[in-house]
Write a structure and sequence with these properties.
single chain; mainly alpha; Arc Repressor Mutant, subunit A; 2 strands; elongated; transcription
Amino acid sequence: MNIKELTRAEEQVMQELWKQGKAFVKEIIEQMEDPKPAYNTVSTIIRILETKGFVGHESFGKSHRYFPKVSKDDYKDFAAGKLISGYFDNSAKKMLSFFIQENRLNIKETDELLRLLEKAKKK
């Protein structure tokens, strides 16, 4: 699958679609934070997302109910890979070091990461 990068607005719409599973434009807007975007704006973004292959739809007369064609996990994998390759020389170690040095991880999160690493070592 060839995943493309989403704009900020496209990602906001996809986040709602991933949460809801299937939704009409009106239902997507209802769940978005204030100030809510205009109906036409979200409708246009949805059509762009369809063109990019992220969204499909079911027709109900003149209405369309939209659903994700790309899973959140697949996009998360793509976005994480892009972050690691673009900013951390393809090194998860460098990325993790950055988060630790910038105090982006609290003690509880650090302990949880250590547990995950120990678990991974045992496999």
